[in-house]
């Protein structure tokens, strides 16, 4: 049986931070001409990760708001299927904490708001299938966002450690130069 590895080593949506193991070798590379330049590049990389984090957190909040609405919609459709051919009495939400009593005539169709000023009529079975698929998709997206955020935390840590290692390397280099003088 294949072992599920929850910790990712790479992510196709987020660039990986490379850990600087040997700072001396790293600083000898031609693109690393000065400590300030390297620290600036690492800081830019850190800022990019902050931007990714902001976008992922925004997406997660949107999904967290969307899921309860989808589940309530699915529950209502299932109730309508259960009481098919009967008039339903319900409390209808007008706005936050404001309800009114409603009598819903027996129907085999529902209108679903799809967003972007689009509403379509579906029969109860098709509506159940559509909403169930949307719930599954939102749940999968939520898991992916959480995995991306976990991966991103590792990239933050790696970048911050790299910045500290390069800075400390520079401090030691300056101290050694002072002692030689």
From TrEMBL:
GO cellular component: cytoplasm; prefoldin complex
Family matches, as Pfam families: Prefoldin
Gene Ontology MF, one: tubulin binding
InterPro entries: PFD3, Prefoldin, Prefoldin_subunit_alpha
Assembly mode: Heterohexamer of two PFD-alpha type and four PFD-beta type subunits.
Family per similarity comment: Belongs to the prefoldin subunit alpha family.
Record function comment: Binds specifically to cytosolic chaperonin (c-CPN) and transfers target proteins to it. Binds to nascent polypeptide chain and promotes folding in an environment in which there are many competing pathways for nonnative proteins.
Protein's name in the database: Prefoldin subunit 3
Organism, scientific name: Daktulosphaira vitifoliae
Upper taxonomic lineage: Eukaryota, Metazoa, Ecdysozoa, Arthropoda, Hexapoda
């Amino acid at each position: 049986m294949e072992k599920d590895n929850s910790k990712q080593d790479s992510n196709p949506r987020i660039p990986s931070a490379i850990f600087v193991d040997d700072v001396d070798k790293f600083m000898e590379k031609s693109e690393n001409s000065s400590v300030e330049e390297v620290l600036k590049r690492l800081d830019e990389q850190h800022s990019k990760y902050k931007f990714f984090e902001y976008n992922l957190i925004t997406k997660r909040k949107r999904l967290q708001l969307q899921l309860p609405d989808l589940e309530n919609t699915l529950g209502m459709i299932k109730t309508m299927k259960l009481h098919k051919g009967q008039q339903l009495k319900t409390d209808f939400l007008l706005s936050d904490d404001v309800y009114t009593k409603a009598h819903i005539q027996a129907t085999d169709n529902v209108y679903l708001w799809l967003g972007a000023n689009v509403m379509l009529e579906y029969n109860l079975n098709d509506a159940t299938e559509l909403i169930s698929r949307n719930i599954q998709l939102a749940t999968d997206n939520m898991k992916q966002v959480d995995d991306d955020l976990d991966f991103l935390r590792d990239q933050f840590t790696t970048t911050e450690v790299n910045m500290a290692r390069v800075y400390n390397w520079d401090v030691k280099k300056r101290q050694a130069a002072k002692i030689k003088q």
